[in-house]
Amino acid sequence: MLAEIVLNIFNENFDTQAMLFRSPGRINLIGEHTDYNDGFVLPAAIDKAVYLAIAPAKGDYGRWISVDFGESIEVSRMQNLKISNDWANYLLGVIQEFRSAGFAIPAFDLVVAADIPIGAGMSSSAALECVMAYALNHFLHAGLDRKSLAFLTKRAENNFIGLQCGIMDMFASLHGKKNHVFRLDCRSLEYEYFPLHLNDYYFILLDTGVKHSLASSEYNTRREECAEGIATLKKFYPGLNSLRDVDHEMLNANKSAFDPLIFQRCAYVVEENNRVQLTCQALRDNDLATTGRMMFASHQGLKNQYQVSCAELDFLVDQVSEDPAVLGARMMGGGFGGCTINLVLKNQAAQLIEKISESYQAFSGIALKHYEVVTGEGTGEIKIQSLVQ
Ligand code: GLA
């Protein structure tokens, strides 16, 4: 078990008493690129996580060990700029936010490892930020609740890493609940859990194995395009501040004022927010067929209107779209690579994966990886006694 491995490595390297924390990755059933538009998302935490063994160190320096990257580095408690070890920057970004909030930061010894696939769109970096924030909240007696920790880790990503992401990934990692997705209102941060009754179906992620380099620049561009859409509409609706409050009537009534590309982006966001609500109703009604249809429709919007998909993602969705064993499929996360999420009939899954692995290999030259989604609990401490048999 990874928690034990992390703790053992800590104990081999340090003679202090560590505490152990974990924070999970996430999936998103539907509601993509809506979080930074004050809209709705429907994520869940998964059973794959980042594990952190950590204790305050004496003096000004601590040692940070990444099991996954095979690196061990000395870090000053005063360090407040990026360093060349990418994984460590996610931790430093969180420390920097606590420092900005007025906390004195001691040095820390720590060991970190994850079983969330990196770069596959399951938010391993948000999980890393969340596990560090949760640990610091404890050691610094900061008393922050989970919502505040989600804001803090989002600021760490925005300010220190430089990606203008929304709140979904961090919020999902901190608030996940086994066997549930939850609808998050990204404006009020109210959320509601929906039990997943999948019966003979389950979610499978198909991993394109690619992450195109334009992912983060295009992400920030989409944010700007949405802001431009608001600026256009504000001329007609001065009180308007986000696409969350826009509907089709408002868009269509003012279509001629829009740059056509911006119109298309805004139409996508309006429709995707609607799809989240319809999916929630479908989950309440145990209507998996509608859930699946919403997923396919979301993909079409992401591909054609919002234009954040890529050939590999489209290929994987196309391959399953006519398959009776698949109720729905779409790209998941920011786009330009990563995984598709698929709602698949369990007893047909092995056959399906075999077929698609072959065609995907022929199409892209890449061996297809797949992950069965198992939902899990949000960020927390792992009591060390619970590991000792
Ligand atoms: C990335 C971001 C999230 C969200 C998604 C798209 O995962 O980190 O905030 O915007 O893309 O839905």
Task: Give an account of the 3D structure.
With 389 residues, the chain is α+β, with helices and mostly antiparallel strands. The chain has 2 domains: 2-196 and 376-387, Ribosomal Protein S5, domain 2, CATH 3.30.230.10; 201-373, GHMP kinase, C-terminal domain (Alpha-Beta Plaits, 2-Layer Sandwich). Helix content is 42%, strand content 23%. Strands 5-4-6-3-1-13 form a 6-stranded mixed β-sheet, with helices on both faces. α2 crosses α3 (124-139). 46% of the residues are buried. The mean pLDDT is 96. It binds alpha-D-galactopyranose (GLA). Alpha-D-galactopyranose is lined by residues 32-33, 35-36, 165-166, 168-169, 333-334. Alpha-D-galactopyranose binds at residues 32-33, 35-36, 165-166, 168-169, 333-334.
